[in-house]
Design brief:
The structure is a single chain. The longest helix is centred in the N-terminal third of the chain and has 15 residues. The chain is α/β, with parallel strands linked by helices. It has two domains: 173 residues, HUPs (Rossmann fold, 3-Layer(aba) Sandwich); 121 residues, Rossmann fold, CATH 3.40.50. The termini are far apart. The chain is 27% helix and 26% strand.
Length: 322
């Protein structure tokens, strides 16, 4: 295999983010004859994660360890990624369209002087061409992108490209790449993180989101209980965050997170266009609202007109008894 596709992996709390496995699957869709080379950057403990990338389809994994890679900085990770690119000369690069991916990939593309297809939700083959589909205008339309020459470079939206099945019998080489990370203008001294409860929303298959109709921080408690029953995550509108009902890390929408879960339950959400931009591509949308004329019902697959404080406990009870 002479061609190589570099998959830039991401970690969170010492584990691989699921979008890393989806990126490996995306690399296979781009060219199933190319060698898929994973890349992991961090301070230490990367070998078990590299093995996991191989179990999910990577043929070989490169690890770059350095004390300045313990926390993400675009300069530090950019130096590590560029070193791997210089060594491997890949024909393609794939990464998740996450906060990290959105930050570092345009800078890498600029240095390489190549184009970047960002936020791809589907990858197809048309004869010998690879066709990427990506949403535009806040998800109101979709465009097809084809790279006609040079390096294929893309980021993929989480929860859109199915990861390959895990195969623990797969083996592959894990190699280290020494990179002298230096001259950083920014160094992370300490990370103070507001940790939200439950599953990471950006990669959850089920999201329960609350709006101003939840009325208070206490009003979010039934949503957390429902999320726990469904194995999902809790999100919110900007209005709910502005009102102090929850942290801004839960915000979904044009100025928040863009998600594509299998099931999205909108609770007490009117359906402002800014919020719809972040969740309208969800596979199944359920809306719970007292106002039958709420805009959210126009895009919902299923709607429940009623008091959320009556409906949510009933849903939880039925699900627990199912």
């Amino acid at each position: 295999m002479s061609d190589k596709i570099l998959v830039i992996g991401e970690t969170q709390d010492g584990e691989l983010r699921h979008v890393t496995f989806e990126a490996i699957a995306a690399a296979k869709l781009i060219d199933d004859t190319s060698e898929v080379v994973g890349l992991l950057c961090g301070a230490d403990g990367l070998e078990p994660l590299a093995e996991e990338m191989i179990h999910y389809g990577a043929d070989r994994v490169i690890t770059v360890t350095h004390e300045l890679l313990e926390n993400y900085t675009s300069e530090g990770f950019g130096q590590a990624i560029m070193a791997a690119i210089d060594q491997e000369s890949p024909t393609g690069i794939v990464m998740g369209h996450t906060a990290t991916g959105k930050d570092v990939t345009p800078k890498i593309a600029s240095k390489l002087e190549v184009g970047l297809v960002s936020d791809a939700i589907a990858i197809e083959k048309d004869d010998d061409q690879v066709v990427f589909t990506r949403p535009i205008y806040s998800g109101k339309a979709f465009e097809k992108k084809i790279i006609t020459e040079g390096l294929t470079f893309a980021t993929i939206r989480p929860n859109n490209i199915k990861a390959l099945d895990k195969d623990e019998s797969r083996t592959g080489e894990i190699e280290t790449l020494e990179v002298d990370v230096k001259d950083l203008k920014t160094i992370v001294k300490e990370v103070i993180r507001k940790k939200t409860e439950g599953v990471d929303m950006s990669e959850a298959s089920v999201v329960i989101a609350g709006g101003r109709g939840v009325k208070s921080a206490e009003g979010f408690e039934p949503l957390y209980e429902l999320a726990e029953v469904l194995g999902g995550a809790v999100g919110a509108t900007r209005g709910a965050a502005d009102a102090g009902y929850c942290d801004y890390s839960l915000q979904i929408g044009q100025t928040g997170k863009v998600i594509t879960p299998d099931l999205y339950i909108a609770v007490g959400i009117s359906g402002a266009i800014q919020h719809l931009a972040g969740m309208s591509s969800s596979k199944v949308i359920v809306a719970i609202n007292q106002d039958p004329d709420a805009n959210i019902f126009n895009i919902a697959d299923y709607g429940i007109v009623g008091d959320l404080f009556e409906v949510i406990p009933l849903l939880i009870e039925e699900l627990k008894n199912a």
